[in-house]
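pls design
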């Protein structure tokens, strides 16, 4: 087997402490049987392992999870979930979801410059809520659950990509309760996306604010919409027409719109973006239209 065809594939890096801990939890949850797998010769050297539980595949790779563009079109399905660590210089204890892609130059050489992966708004929404439920269920009161903006690779996969992470220092990567929470969340989303449910909400593409998307996640928390790609304010200078079209085309959703964080976007940038949205015929709103009080 050289192509990987499962409705959902979980990818784990043998370099990733938290990811490998999540893998061990997943192996105790379900009988993931090892499959014969010969990686394509053009893939990086190293040890690969493919396991499967029903319609869910689990691929272990020897590279960093963000350095996986070599997977390219080798995976066919509905969703790829990366089980991964989250690194925080501030040491924040968090469990998170996020889509992948580079608004400007490739971050640490991961993925391609100015290229986004495919994001599923519904999958990200379900991933966030699954982690939130696990945080409450397992009593991880010192952790917070959230979402990051679109950043780093991979960018070349032909299916939607989502990272589900535990962080932010080595202490959290080794926290068995925290990695179990993320593994449980991954398994819940994977089972759901074997046959994705009908979408019940519109999908927002977030524009503005900081790295951790506070204005958007506050509204996702209240189930106002799904959330796809998010471009934070520090990348607005790179958000030209080409990148706006790409963000639109690479966010999956039955009914989409750009959502501008009004407080997290400078007036000049906001005016320029609205002009492009209207030129392209893209629906748009501001966060003020979705009050949370």
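designed seq:
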């Amino acid at each position: 087997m050289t192509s990987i065809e499962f409705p959902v594939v979980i990818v784990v890096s043998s370099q990733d402490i938290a990811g490998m801990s999540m893998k061990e939890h997943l192996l105790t949850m379900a009988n993931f049987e090892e499959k014969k797998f010969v990686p394509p010769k053009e893939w990086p050297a190293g040890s690969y392992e493919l396991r499967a539980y029903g319609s869910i595949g689990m691929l272990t790779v020897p590279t960093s999870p963000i350095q996986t563009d070599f997977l390219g079109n080798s995976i066919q399905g509905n969703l790829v979930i990366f089980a991964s660590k989250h690194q925080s210089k501030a040491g924040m204890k968090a469990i998170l979801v996020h889509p992948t892609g580079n608004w400007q130059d490739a971050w640490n050489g991961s993925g391609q410059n100015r290229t986004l992966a495919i994001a599923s708004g519904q999958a990200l929404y379900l991933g966030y809520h699954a982690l939130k439920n696990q945080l409450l269920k397992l009593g991880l009161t010192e952790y917070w659950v959230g979402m990051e903006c679109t950043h780093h690779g991979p960018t070349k996969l032909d299916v939607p990509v989502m990272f589900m992470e535990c962080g932010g220092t080595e202490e959290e990567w080794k926290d068995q309760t925290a990695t179990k929470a993320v593994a449980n969340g991954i398994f819940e989303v994977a089972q759901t996306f074997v046959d994705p449910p009908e979408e019940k909400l519109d999908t927002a593409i977030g524009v503005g604010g900081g790295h951790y998307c506070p204005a958007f996640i506050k509204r996702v928390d209240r189930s106002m919409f799904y959330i796809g790609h998010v471009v934070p304010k520090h990348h607005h200078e790179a958000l030209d027409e080409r990148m706006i079209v790409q963000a639109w085309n690479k966010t999956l959703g039955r009914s989409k719109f750009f959502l501008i964080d009004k407080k997290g976007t400078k007036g000049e940038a906001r005016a320029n973006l609205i002009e492009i949205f209207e030129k392209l015929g893209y629906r748009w709103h501001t966060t003020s239209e979705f009050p949370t009080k």
